Amino acid sequence: MFEKILIANRGEIALRIIRSAQELDIKAVAIYEETDKDAFHIMRADEAICIGPGPRKDYLDIDKIIEAAKKTGAEAIHPGYGFLAENPEFPEACIEAGLVFIGPPHEVIRSLGSKVIARDIARNSDIPVIPATETLSAGEAANEEALAFAAEYGFPIMIKAVSGGGGRGIRQVDDERSLLAGLKQSRSEALMAFGNDDIYLEKCLSRPQHIEVQILADSFGNVVHLGTRNCSIQRRHQKLIEIAPAGLPKELTAEICDAAVRVAKASNYQSAGTVEFLVEPDGRFYFLEVNTRIQVEHTVTEMVTGIDIVREQLLIAMGEPISFSQKAVVERGYAIELRINAEDPKNEFLATPGVVQVYQSSAGHGVRLDGAIYQGYEIPPFYDSMMVKLTVYGFTWQEAVDRLSRALSGFIIIGVKTTIPFFQQIVNEPDFIQMKFDTSYLDTHPQLLDYEEKEREVDKIARLIAEINAYGYNPYAQ
Hints:
single chain, alpha+beta, 5-stranded parallel beta sheet, 4-stranded antiparallel beta sheet, 16 helices, globular
């Protein structure tokens, strides 16, 4: 059993890991940059250590994080998601420093991090893959390869970064001109985001559903799946709403989950991971990629299965087998997760950092919050704009939707614009209520951005109280 671990991350995922660690009686060390010194995760850790002035660069500095772990006596490092979570050099450095990396082996991260190699693993496991090129050659040769692929499969085509993830480095092109221009743009974006400008092309499917399967694998060769999630509602290929289970027919669900387990076994996977697929309206499905980390949306799976995925990650890293069998996994009801961000949806979802003058969270039965803010907290402009993840559970889909509507109305957040009004539009939209959506949902429902932000009476009162507290008197009284 570990006595102390270090969490190489910030925000709500750092808090999430801290909670599971403390339940196992493991001390949790938080790291932070000076530009993040007021972050909530620091307050909930057993100890915290500053790793540099920031912003962002120190959270990406492997040497500084290893040094912090050694200095605080941590035995293992959990990477969370983002930052260094999918950088194979990080687990490699941990092993060299005598530390345990709480995640897959570096060889697995390196293999599955390449979308081209991951596709080969899936293909060799008899899992359908979307027609695609190999990694495109450098220079003018890439143009010829791209045009040949377009001639064979037609448009639209997706340009993707070989090391891509999180919706970055992806571009849809609809004709030869945009294809040739897109190759240069995608290479540039991929280089900036991943340090690798390798790209490839993939045939674009029409209005598929984005489905993923949560898996767990241990060092004894056991692999289990925890069912499906539906992540079809996306903005620019980034997930906005996640749902478990995916709502697919039972037989199709079983086929996809079986395929996910085969990919995990073929890649010698260990720890928690997610295998992603695209599913066409006729039920044909294709392997998309493997995410070698805990994901933001793991909470919906935890809500419908009752399984603590982070706890299992920690136990697996300590050399324990998965603590349950596949037969013990039962999905019950529906869960929906939203990311409540400090963003302005009506302004291209532009981040709106600032001081949270009033924060009253929602609550009640069937509501889970994974938050990273508090009243008076100044959301810094340097990091992700997520304020709190809202996850609701319902015995039926309708109950989950009703609960989501109630939970959204329960928030009082004053000081920054949020995504709440936009989500309130979605939760009242007929197709969403009937669970009819695919990856084109936002494009085919542009009216969702047609709303007026009205300050409720309760918001006005909360704002007044905040101002009285701030000034020490009522600025509106004579």
